[in-house]
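Much of our argument rests on the idea that a fold can be written as discrete symbols. Part of our work consisted of pairing the sequence of a single chain with a tokenised description of its backbone. The amino acid sequence and the backbone structure tokens for this protein are reproduced below.
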Amino acid sequence: DIDRNQSKSPSNLASYLLDSQAIQRFQRLTLAWRKFNVNAPDLSISEQGSIEAAVKYFKLSQTLDDSSSLRGLLSLVARIQAGRRLDELKPEGKKCRPRNPLYQAYTQIAKKITYQDFKRSLSTATSLNTNLGGLIVFLPFAERGKIGVRDFQRANDITLQNHLAAHPHFRKLSQVGDEFVGSIFANGEFPTRIWENYPFGEDLPVKHQVELLGIEGPTLPREYQLDWSERIVTVQPVIALTPSSAHTPLSIVRSNGGTADNTTTGSTAFPALSESPSSGSPPSNEAAQSTLHSTINTQQLTNTIPTSKPFLLPTLTPSLRLPVSSSLTESIKSAETRTGRTPLPNGRHSSAPWTDVSIADFSSLYPTSENNSTQPSSPISQAASSLLQKIGSPAITLVDSPLSTSSPTLVPSMFPWLDDALSSLDRLDEGSWLNDAIINAYMHILAERHNEICFLNSHLFGQHRLQDSWKAETGHPLDSDLVLTPINEADHWYLLVMYQRAAQNGRVVCFLDSLGSSSASHNRAFTRWTEYLSAHGISGVSRKYITVPKQVNGDDCGVYLLGFVGLILEGFRDFIKAVEDNAELGWTINAAKLRRSIRSILAEANGPAAPGVVATKSDDDVCMDSDRV
């Protein structure tokens, strides 16, 4: 179980507020509002006097208890409005409400309540409004769990807001929340959503649930369809698996005839989708539809967030969306102007099913010399090939040298991830999210440069039954001193690392996460991993914690993951010593330069540079750095 204090840290609170359970809470809230709004209290109080209006709002909040999520939300909104009306009486430049008007309002409240409780009630409502804005609709009202509404009003304002803003679903869910709260003041006019007519499919990824949360019905966007039980699933694209030529433009034409920059859906603008296999079992012609990762309109957010940004505006209007000239919208506009498009998500993107090829299938492509020495034209040693045949995983013996001085490694064009990665180089533009093709191809290349590295494909953690699929696909990963596995959960990349302690004294697992993420996510991954190992007779696996550099936006988690991989391979023994000693790693990562370095290395791996790619020799040296422990 997660430590109680740790579970209520700002990072965990942010993850808790924006996960799939929060989406379900909002759906239940919406359906309750449909039934309740006929007899709903009128929140559009028109009294001109601030004190009189505040009293009416507060009395209204008292008539609503916390017996249901909807009543809890309406009570909170009424208290926020009461505090806002009293704030109108603040002298210019003052932060606190004047005492006399506050006390006057208190004396007019008939229901018994102490003055301190009255002030505290208004203060906590204002704090939630400042911290969360429209996200208050996702709060766990009327729930009796470890995390409650009070935890969000106690959290440090700026820290919690930073974690929320870095979450990939922040902007979309904030917009949906603002629209719902606005409907409360517009006589309940909240347009019917598509998911009210057709529920989500059981395996519909969270990113798609978020995208569909704000889509009005009844027309389903063409990127989705209904399964046999009339549940929303994603459409399986028809994708040609023929490797692209060296002269293929980087602006890839989609299978639907549009381009990545101009795809539209009916009369409503809808971002282009990237092609991906399902996150469940390997796709087949008869299988259920696999997933697409839609573009969520999330952009790189500034590191500094205003200390106060309430969603309730001074003058209430039916729509409470961000004003056109707000700092957030200006940040989004500037990012779109810079990149010329909306950034794509870092979800799975490969056009080739991961089961089509195993690493062992490629061992015959690399000739080996009789003395087992490695030549530039034969990057895998004979010993490594036999190991591949034994365990089926890329434990590869190659160039044993630091990453910053490694020579280019040519990868055959038949390499499944490389073609997809070269077709996805626009994901390496600033503000874009890395997909699985980039992650897997780059990690394969790094594994080929270092000894005894076991790299596990990012899709493996997406399988429902690790024991069955991993045994068939990757064999036994424990013949290697180092195992690296990228994991993607809820649109966020982090790295699982396992290493062998000296003298066969057990194995250690740690998670390197540039966002901190939710400990619950790490716990789930650790449980699944150890269950898989236990099924193969492996025990004695312990878990260690290590602090790593944190990303400063919502776009660079995949970049930081690859940076962590490079730094580990550059100083494997130093990394282990730091973990064992609970010491600082001393790592620094320049995300912008690392993006350019990754692009260059992928181009070098394909031989001639891809169009528009200029290979550099210095980026490896400057984009990542570590102080030796």
Notes: Strands lie at 224-226, 232-234, 453-455, 482-489, 492-500, 507-512, 541-543, 587-589, 624-626.
